């Protein structure tokens, strides 16, 4: 961590947090569940005594990492006492205390960390990546996931992606029958030769089905196959790794550094999806990537259902992590949300995410949109179904 961060004497004098629901443009099916109509997130705002403001986002999913209600309570009730009146320069102590004060709720911790580094970067006039380490890249290849049960709509999206210069897509599989998965992969490989196609099951297969179906997918030469079976099926992941030519990526099997070490010991993967919402922030995500690097395993910049506010910490993390070399899937703000929280578009040019150089996270939030999408305490919102 940059020494100038530790030297900041200003304190955090106020903290606010919200539960938001933002409309999306289509249904998306994954191996472990469906999202339709809206995504749910939590947003935290920190105010320093000198007036600087920092924002962070927690992007949970109830079937994967957690719930927005739990993360909002985690921030508001359990982490607030350790943040307000704390010295910003004591960043490492704040985050260590947060880890002990609240079990799980990794999204809340990621949001807190992002907001702290955002406000610190603004005070120091430095981008967040400069506080984390040495920059190794200024742009990151963007990968967009295809998960619409209406494949014709995904074909329309694929045409738009090619036109925009995007060259990587990840096909979500395992939520319907195997024939549907094979048909979609064959179509993409044949009709879109410009695209590098990856496959992601999101734990969608039982072990017996995975042993039959994954080798058939493998014969169509996807550039990697991600998490075919449930997170705890380490033996099955190891067997699949031995039987496929395509690299096998771990996602749900690896949340933080502790899981990464076990994954390496048990030889379950050829790479890992690094997500700050799983790991609990950029610093722990970087640790996951470093452990993987030492074992010769590359990283992929994964995401949850996020706005541009949550994409940005991932961008800064990848900017200083040489081993996260397989691109990133920070596409939600550009291709999935009806309206993003950022006051200006998330920075994608010709299929590449641009690393910001502005202070803090690099882009500002439209605060009016927080009020517009706030559902904290609302009885008109249930799950991801908007009723009002």
């Amino acid at each position: 961590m940059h020494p100038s961060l530790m030297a900041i004497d200003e304190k955090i004098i106020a903290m606010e947090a919200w539960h938001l629901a933002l409309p999306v443009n289509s249904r998306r099916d994954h191996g472990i569940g469906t999202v339709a109509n809206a995504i749910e997130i939590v947003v935290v705002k920190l105010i320093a005594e000198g007036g600087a403001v920092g924002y962070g986002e927690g992007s949970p999913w109830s079937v994967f990492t957690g719930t927005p209600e739990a993360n909002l309570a985690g921030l508001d009730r359990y982490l607030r006492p350790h943040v307000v009146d704390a010295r910003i320069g004591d960043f490492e102590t704040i985050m260590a205390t947060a880890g002990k004060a609240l079990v799980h709720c990794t999204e809340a911790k990621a949001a807190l960390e992002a907001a702290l580094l955002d406000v610190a970067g603004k005070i120091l006039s430095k981008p967040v990546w400069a506080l984390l380490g040495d920059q190794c890249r200024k742009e990151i290849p963007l990968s967009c996931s295809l998960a619409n049960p209406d494949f014709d709509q995904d074909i329309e999206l694929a045409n738009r992606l090619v036109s925009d210069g995007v060259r990587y897509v990840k096909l979500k599989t395992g939520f319907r029958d195997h024939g549907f998965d094979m048909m979609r992969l064959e179509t993409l490989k044949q009709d879109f030769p410009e695209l590098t196609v990856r496959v992601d099951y999101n734990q969608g297969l039982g072990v017996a089905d995975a042993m039959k179906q994954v080798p058939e997918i493998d014969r169509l030469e996807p550039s990697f196959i991600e998490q075919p079976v449930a997170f705890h099926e380490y033996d099955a992941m190891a067997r699949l790794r031995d039987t496929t030519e395509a690299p096998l990526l771990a996602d749900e099997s690896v949340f933080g550094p502790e899981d990464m070490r076990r994954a390496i010991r048990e030889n379950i993967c050829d790479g890992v999806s690094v997500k700050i919402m799983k790991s609990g922030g950029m610093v722990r995500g970087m640790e996951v990537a470093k452990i993987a690097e030492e074992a010769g395993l590359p990283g992929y910049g994964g995401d949850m259902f996020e706005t541009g506010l949550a994409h940005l910490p991932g961008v800064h993390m990848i900017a200083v992590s040489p081993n996260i070399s397989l691109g990133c899937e920070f596409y939600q703000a550009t291709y999935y949300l009806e309206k993003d929280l950022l006051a200006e578009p998330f920075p994608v040019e010709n299929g590449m995410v641009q690393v910001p150089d502005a202070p803090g996270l690099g882009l500002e939030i439209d605060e009016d949109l927080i009020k517009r999408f706030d559902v904290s305490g609302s009885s008109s919102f249930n799950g991801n179904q908007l009723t009002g």
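The longest strand covers residues 12-23. The radius of gyration is 20 Å.
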